[in-house]
Amino acid sequence: MIESYRAVLRHGDVRRVLLLGTIVRVPLWAANVILTLHVVTTLDRSYAAAGLLAAVATVALSVSAPWRGRRLDRDGLRAAVAPSLVVLAGCWSVAPFVGYWPLLVLAAVAGLFEVPSFSIVRQVLLRAVPEGQRTTALSIDSVAVEVSFMIGPALGVVLATYLPTSWALFACQFASVAGGVAIWLADPPLRGTPAPAAPADPAPAAPTGHRPPAVRDWLDLRVGALLVMSAAATMVLTGTDVGVVAALRDMDHQTWIGWELAVWGAGSAVGGLVYGALRRTIPVAALLALLAATALPVALGGEPLLLAALLFVTGFWCAPTVTASVDELTRFVPERVRGEALGWHGSALTLGSGVGAPLAGIAIDHVGWRGGFVLPALLGLLAAAFGWAASRRGVERTATTTARRPLVET
């Protein structure tokens, strides 16, 4: 397993882009926590107001991800990122120091122009490594995301403790902008020289600056099912997150919430490392089914230690599911629309997160904390079944098309 990761990390572009991605992501996670604290404490608003702000920012990110990715495909990294850096610097130089409603508007604008760092990192990784190392490279990125997610919120709380929340928010957002500037300066290549297209392959990649194909040209049943499964995966994860908080509050162990979630994240990191070292890929439908199936028994964790053990098991399948969804998606679509496709993937993940929390909350309100695990998990299993059926239909359709293709003598 170690040799697989050494082989990937020998590539200079891999090391550089992972570092740049971390520089952007850690302050972003920190800023998300500080934003809630800023609304509730400094602006003296309710948690509902903080939730509305988070929802507006989430919608803005979901809307922006596909068209930001399309700009990457069409115009290249520097042309796509430069406007984002200008808008983000303008928004976050003002937003921490204004009232709630101007903050809401500025956060929405900033969300629309967020640097597509996740898409950039993954495109660079896919270009930098050979075919046989794709899964390992994407798994490293998934683990890096997990690590940055563990560091960022804790860092945000520390900054908000020792600094006014306005200045803490300013510092984190501009640290993220500085990471975006570093990516712009590095300008890592997003695509390699395209190989000759096989007869069944999509059209060969167009040079940067040409209009990429329309969404309808590559968004087929397989891709649509994959996006549904990606949304279902984050729905299960968000539901589990809410369920953990509700369970530990019911058990009167609120102080255990942080380390229980850390155990869950550790399980995901271990799973990502193991999956990245495998010599073959596992279908997303199978991984999503395992993620959802192992989330169901968490509802039986009637005491904190058992809950932690069950969370580690379900966490094991988190990073592999997300990694496999990215891997499959980038195999299904032409390279020249990879940025836009990853944007749609990001929107699907964001949508799943947005749906998972209220669904889990409704279940908890009606049947208790166990419902927060059960309902999202059952929906995840349903999405996995749909994805499996769609993939089978896609394979059969491809086989039929190939069988009908007339032979050409040379």
From TrEMBL:
Coiled coil: none
Pfam families xrefs: MFS_1
Keywords associated with the record: Membrane, Transmembrane, Transmembrane helix
Localization per Swiss-Prot or TrEMBL: Cell membrane
GO annotations of cellular component type: plasma membrane
Membrane topology label: Multi-pass membrane protein
Bilayer-crossing regions: 17-40, 46-65, 77-95, 142-161, 219-237, 257-275, 282-300, 306-329, 341-364, 370-390
InterPro entries, per the entry: MFS, MFS_dom, MFS_trans_sf
Residues making up the signal peptide according to the UniProt record: none
Every Major facilitator superfamily (MFS) profile domain range: 168-410
Principal subcellular localization: membrane
One example GO MF annotation: transmembrane transporter activity
Annotated protein name in UniProt: Predicted arabinose efflux permease, MFS family
Native species: Jatrophihabitans endophyticus
